[in-house]
Structures are given as structure tokens and as C-alpha cells.
């Protein structure tokens, strides 16, 4: 009997993919903090996860979709048109890293459970 890890891990595998993508977007924001005209972006994690789960329910494969990065509205826009706010980006990056670790912990717990079930 084959084990389907996508089904066994549930939404946690998809959450890890989205968290990794959000990390990439937030890192790009931080890297372009002093680039004139750069527009900060972010991913709406909840909406992207809901969309991914709905796509899985109707049979769409995850390789055909990606999270939509939306523009962030700045609290204090710069005169050069850059919308990256260092403190905001650092806080979002830190929170995302913590959430990534939490999702990874859930995946590890699921895999340990599967291992115990296989070993008996």
C-alpha cells in the first residue's frame, strides 16, 4: 500500500511552500530598501492557502499555481517612491520565519507519527 505524503501531511506541506515563497518576497523587499522607486510586495498568506486548498480539492496541481504578491501600502512613503519600510519588513520577515518553523514542526510530528505506524 502506497503512502501519499500530500494527503498524509495535509495543509502543512502547502503552508511550507507558501511560507518559503513569502520569505523570498520579503527578502527581496529588504534587499531593495534603498532602491529608488522600488515597490514593497507581500503575499496574503491566508488567501493564498485557502486558494491552494480549494485547488487541491478540485484536482489542480500545485505546480500550476503560485502565490500572488500584492503591493504593500506604506505608512510613511519616501520621496524617491520606495515603499519599503525597514522596521515593517524586518518584523514581517521575523514573524514569517517563526511561522515557517511552526509549520515545519507540525510536518516533523506528522512524519514521526507515520514512521511509528509503519514500524509498529
Give structural notes.
The mean pLDDT is 87. The chain has four helices and two strands. The protein has helices at 5-9, 11-31, 45-58, 86-119; strands at 41-43, 69-71. With 120 residues, it is mainly alpha-helical. The protein has a two-stranded antiparallel ribbon. Helices cover 62% and strands 5% of the residues. The protein has one domain (5-119).
Short description:
The chain has four helices and two strands; from the N terminus they run H-H-E-H-E-H.
Q: Could you tell me the radius of gyration in angstroms?
A: 18 Å
Rounded mean pLDDT score: 87
- List the total number of helices: 4
- How many β-strand stretches? 2
Query: Which residue ranges are poorly predicted, with pLDDT under 50 across at least 5 consecutive positions?
Result: none
Strand content: 5-15%
Strand order of the largest sheet: 1-2
Terminal CA distance: 15 Å
Helix content: 55-70%
Q: Indicate the structural class.
A: mainly alpha
Number of domains: 1
Notable characteristics:
120 residues; mainly alpha
Draw up the topology in text:
Elements: H1 5-9, H2 11-31, E1 41-43, H3 45-58, E2 69-71, H4 86-119
Antiparallel strand pairs: 1-2
